[in-house]
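Protein of interest.
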Amino acid sequence: MIDTQKMMETVMQYKETAPLSQDRRSLIGKPLNRVDGQLKVKGEVPFSAEYNVANLTYAALVYSSVTKGKIAKIDVSRAEKANGVLAIVTHENAPKMNEPLPFNPSGGNGAAASDLPILQEADVHWNGQPIAVIVAETQDSAEEAATLVKVEYETAEVEVSFDALKKIAKQPENILGEPPEIKIGDAENAFDAAEFKVDNLYHTPRYNHNAIEPHATIAIWHDDESLTVFDSTQCIHNLSYTLAMMFGIQPEAVRVISPFVGGGFGGKGTMWWNTALCAIAAKVVNRPVKLAVSREGVFRIVGGRTPSEQRVALGAGKDGKFTAVIHSGITAATTHNNFPEQFTFPVRHLYAAENFYIAQKVVNLDTVANTFMRAPGESIGTFALESAIDELAYELKIDPIELRRINEPTKDPVRDVAFSMRNLTLAYQRGAEKFGWNHQAPRSQKDGKWLVGQGVATAYYPYYRFVSTARVRISADGTAVVKASAHEMGMGTATVQIQHAAERLGLPIERVSFEYGDSNLPQAPLAGGSNQTASNLAAIAATIEKVLRELLAIAGDDSPLSGLKYEDIEVRDGGIFSKEDSSKGETYTSILQRVGQEYVEAEAASGEPSEIEEYSMGSYGAQFCEVRINEETGEVRVSRWLGSFDCGKILNPKTATSQFRGGIIMGIGMALTEETLFDERKGRIMNASLAEYHIPVNLDVPHIEIIYNDIPDEHAPSGVHGIGEIGITGVAAAIANAVFNATGKRIRELPITLDKLL
């Protein structure tokens, strides 16, 4: 097997590619290059399907072709005779396992996207469910054999029509721990009495995950009690624990390694069947197995964003102040998962009003479990809410930015607590100036055959932080290593944590490295909810304080630091110095060499995120967009974009700007091109390929300008808020609002395709 320790040491070291300024401590806020950037560009980084494992075999899946029922007969005789086939695992011969522990957004160690038993029964629950695993000496042999498996089914009545079930939608117990229904005042009566009002339904379709790296797993059993898994995952520790529980072995006996993930966006935030099936197959053949899911396979076994129908009703007086805000609607889920997409979260925190009614319901469909997809809930929720606000602005004949300013709250409108930090009005002001916002009447701008329009919308994503753990080692050679089981999916986690640690340690950045992506390392939270940066910052800060205190304790009476307490010191120039007398100090190397230690090491956990309970915390932004629409064909082109964000302190402008832009591009796809086509007769996805599921390409994306306030939140670690998910929020609404401004046609159903504009 590949030497993972050597690989980690090689990759995680920062390689300085540009000279730093003279003030080497000013690392936070610098646009430093990614730690792994060059290696990824040169193809020198292994992703989950690329590890060089000895004696490797290959797996392929057989998927159900019916939506619900039972397998009456499965004939594998022809497949067994195919060249190179080693084993065919079905429900009839699979090792007995415990049911998977499902992921619980409210806490716990489960990772599974669904609580269904995996290959333990004849039941079929969705069209595309894996019903057999073929293991062979080559990938081609496994895939060929998969086509030779013949299956007979006993089908059952199915529920796959979202529209047909809306009338029996039910309220879930909670929405990610929040109440599914909120009533403040009497919103319906206030709405009826309002002088100005809008009341409309907004629809969003299914969306599917298409990360650049499809899901892949390599599973290696060292004996019946020890398992190593290379997996493309966002939840290393939860996955390790869940596999251990399924196979009935000790949690520490399962090691999950995932330092590099080629995009996740929520689709790798839980365990799908492929990971467990790979481990099952490896157990059966007693050899390492690789299961790399095909692009079509990802559509079959990995859930995406649920369809939604949302009602937004807004009432206001002549002054533009909201007298009633109503946001309710329905999404889909399954009976075997628990994820009601939280589309009402933005409305709970964005605008002041006298009366609120907020409610969500769900219907259960016989499909693959739906799951997180970048800014789950908030992305589709802001489409409906921010479109409705734009509609009301036109009714009132008020600039849409001014309407939002008029209704800017002084405290959280639902929780009735103070904001920890909120500079959204400033973000709008700076964005409008930079974009050149000049609100004009619909259909008043034209450039030849092209109708031109501008739109704006608010971006919002809540602040999350979870308890995290880290380990820091300072060595006698003056280097430091930070260790935590964090995830790197391309967002720059490793880079900013090295910047942060180097600044806290007073070391040159090239003397600090970061090891991550391994369940054997100290437990960090999953990568989701834009929590990683704040969570890991808090843990690393606590650990560095602990290791510095340890250095002070061992320095001894012979040190210039003798008698100094932690509160009396500062770190710089590779060591510890007195705040009062800058001449008094000692380097880490000097301390450790003098006391005869090779290194000093500490491990610590962050505190509980009490700030979330005390304050309303979120990331905010203003999305500005210009579109051009061909009057003859209905073609929509996004011609200009500016995102102005209020997300606390920006640690690395280069990686942050990349995150904002990536979210906006994903939002352009959400608004204009992406839609999962679902056959409600057979319960099957019809466009399960990138040839037919259309994501934005280069020509669909304009230059995207990013600005940000860069105002730290004193209540958050290092003043930061999450930025990974906010970029997609508000994007679809800004485009829809710009389309209306250009054409005079209001589109309330995504995607905005040319047939809706002709």
